[in-house]
Design brief:
It contains 3 helices and 31 strands. It has 484 residues and is mainly β. It has 2 domains: 18-337, Glycosyl hydrolase domain, family 43 (Tachylectin-2, Chain A); 343-483, Jelly Rolls, CATH 2.60.120. Bound molecules: 2,5-dideoxy-2,5-imino-D-mannitol.
């Protein structure tokens, strides 16, 4: 998994060459993990008319073997591209894929493909029945925006449901279709979600259950229902950001009641999994480890795919579950990533005090891959700056204004990663600042890319969020960082 040289990453899934974008149809089946992805088999750029589904398998979500493409644009109903979608295992164990085809007239339609031989552990061949498209574009869909079917789930009435995002008369919506046989699909009269007027385009929806039991981190199968669970509705908005809302899904009426209605119906105001440059995420239920695992596409910030011969990486898989507040998801890199830990540096002898403005170099890391666990002790909060309340709604702006080199009362403290030797001219700062706010403290976490590269034309931005950590009580903040 270590790809030295040519700028390739190590923790992140990448095909051998060329362009990839959205994760598609992740699946655990007969002892293997399958990962599909939007792939251009002809070159390192997104090509509107030529996308395929790349396909790889793994026994551990860390080491991957590449297979032939699962889907290529070969039929009239997908002649201009096999776009994003999901996989569902049908009763009896046959996996099916629902995906968006860009048809011969460049219209977006929904197609199905079935694993030709469900007993093939590699699920190498997929067949597309001639009754495709199984869901043609409806007459009230505007802008040809009708795509990205979710994994299908089964209601207690035995019928399958699938969600498809659609611009319905200019309104970004999640339509639900029902089917008894996975081939004939009928649209529900009402969408499961309709955005406010100014959000016409939604992409890559995900709808999945999570257990509401306090302290439980197990995942649930996508069709799970009953008391004691909540659902998560995730949508990618036109700003290319993923946002989610926890709520109650009713499988009789196919309605979703948000747990935080005050956030409104513009997904741009919902919660986020991430604050960096990644989106189009998709989760799956991992029956092997009974967890819900999240994939997401990271689009490089330098536009340099053509020179390199590859573009696009996948964020490492993360397990996620509902936090005790019933509104927020928490997540952690899948534990298998820890099998990559080799040469340990650090330990108790590394306990050190860093003066204001001081730095300590972590020597001994020779590879370009590091899994860093660090605990910052924050014994004294007296000097914390008072937070100007205007920043409460703009933590990212606060990160940009008070970067890693602006001295504060408590902080900035954190890591300088990928730092160039000696002069630190290039580095990415991952840091914290603690502010006093009313009678409590607010911890700001930032990732600052402004000095990440000497190169021109690279998107160098700052990301940030306030964290819900009780620094006053715990007196420390721990940070895990995967660098590659
Ligand atoms: N990418 C796919 C679409 C999807 C978009 C095409 C999101 O299906 O809406 O590559 O990145």
């Amino acid at each position: 998994v270590v790809h030295p040289g040519n700028g390739r990453t190590a923790y992140h899934f990448q095909p051998a060459k060329y362009w990839q974008n959205d994760p598609n149809g992740p699946l655990y089946h007969n002892g293997l993990y399958h990962f599909f992805y939007q792939y251009n088999p002809h070159g390192p750029t997104w090509d509107v008319g030529k996308l395929s589904w790349g396909h790889s398998v793994s026994g551990d979500l860390v080491n991957w073997a590449a297979l032939e493409n699962a889907l290529d644009p070969t039929a009239p109903f997908d002649a201009n591209g096999c776009w994003s979608g999901s996989a569902t295992v049908l009763p009896g164990g046959r996996p099916a894929i629902l995906y968006t085809g860009i048809d011969a007239d460049k219209v977006q339609v929904q197609n199905v493909a079935f694993a030709k031989d469900p007993s093939d552990p590699l699920l190498r061949e997929w067949e597309k029945p001639s009754c495709n498209p199984v869901i043609p574009i409806p007459a009230d869909v505007t802008g040809n925006n009708f795509r990205d079917p979710t994994e299908a789930w089964r209601g207690r009435d035995g019928l399958w449901r699938v969600g498809v995002v659609a611009e319905v008369n200019g309104v970004g919506s999640l339509l639900v279709y029902r089917s008894a046989d996975f081939l004939r699909w009928e649209r529900n009269a009402a969408p499961l979600h309709a955005s406010s007027q100014d959000v016409p385009v939604l992409e890559c929806p995900d709808l999945f259950p999570v257990t509401a039991a306090s302290g439980a981190s197990e995942g649930l199968e996508t069709s799970a229902s009953g008391a004691g669970l909540r659902h998560v509705l995730k949508l990618t908005d036109f700003a290319k950001e993923d946002h989610y809302m926890v709520g109650l899904y009713d499988d009789a009426a196919d309605t979703f009641t948000p747990a935080e209605p005050e956030r409104g119906d513009d997904p741009g105001n919902w919660r986020r999994f991430d604050h960096g440059h990644l989106y189009a995420s998709k989760s799956f239920y991992d029956a092997r480890k009974k967890r819900r695992v999240l994939w997401a596409w990271v689009d490089e910030t330098d536009g340099g795919g053509v020179g390199r011969g590859w573009a696009g990486i996948q964020a490492f898989p993360r397990a996620m579950w509902l936090d005790g507040d019933g509104k927020r998801l928490v997540q952690w890199p899948v534990e298998e990533i820890e099998t990559l830990r080799r040469n340990r540096v650090g330990g108790v002898e590394w306990v050190t005090e860093v003066e204001a403005g001081g730095r300590k170099e972590i020597a001994g890391i020779v590879s370009s891959q590091a899994d860093v666990d660090v605990v910052f002790e924050v014994p004294n909060l007296e000097e914390a700056e008072t937070l100007d309340p205007k920043w409460l709604v703009d933590p990212r702006g606060l990160c940009a204004e008070k970067g890693a080199s602006v001295h504060g009362g408590v902080g900035p403290f954190g890591l300088l990663v990928m730092a160039s030797g000696g002069d630190l001219e290039e580095h990415t700062a991952v840091f914290f600042r603690v502010f006093r706010h009313l009678d409590t403290y607010k911890v700001l976490m930032c990732t600052d890319l402004t000095k990440s590269s000497r190169k021109e034309g690279v998107l160098k931005t700052s990301y940030g969020a306030f964290l819900d950590v009780d620094v006053e009580k715990n007196k420390f903040i721990s940070l895990r960082t995967l660098v590659s």
